[in-house]
Amino acid sequence: MDLMHPTVEAAEPTRANLSTDFVLSGQVLRPLTLSVEQLRRYDSVRVEPFDLRCFTTNRYIRKVGCYRGVRLTELIEEAGLRNDAPGDFKRAVFMAMSHDGYAVTFSWHELFNTHVGESVLIAYECDDQPLSIEDGVPTLYSGADIMAAPRHVKRLARVVVQVLKPELF
User: Which of 51-60, 73-82, 134-143 has the lowest mean pLDDT?
Assistant: First the structure.
């Protein structure tokens, strides 16, 4: 993966991308493929309702109820980050991608060294009702962001871990 020139191709609408499974892969020790049912077996967290607004115009999009899901950090810890050289993990970036090609990033420091990571979750319920494919299950949500829309990823397909090398810069 070239993080300086990332390319994410949108998936054609097929039965394959109607799956609600998502993959955590890349520079991890144990790649994970998890269904929504498997996500439900983890400890869950809830986030407060919020207004979804466009980042560029601040236009109100819609009200979103209480999401319930599993913290992304818990899944990353289960997968285990590769640490080939001392401190590699501190240069890890996480690219979350949806089935339609939308992609957002997080850094290791954001997720594990700030309060942001406490509220980044992969949601499978909203207001105690299961999310459907039409609702965007599974949905990645970053509850500590000032504007929720830019890192609100419906139909999460995968999270890819990449360790940035200093020579890239």
Answer: 51-60
Average pLDDT over residues 7-31: 72
- Domains belonging to the chain, first-starting first, are 21-164 (3.90.420.10)
Other C-beta atoms lying within 10 Å of the C-beta of residue 64 = 19
pTM of the model: 0.86
User: Tokens 């890890």 sit at which residue?
Assistant: 92
Q: Which helix (H) or strand (E) holds 113?
A: helix 108-113
Q: 53 Cβ partners below 8 Å, 6+ apart?
A: 59, 60, 61, 147, 148, 149
- DSSP character for 12? P
Q: How far apart are CA 159 and CA 96, in angstroms?
A: 4
Dihedral, CA of residue 56, residue 102, residue 72 and residue 135, to nearest 10: 90
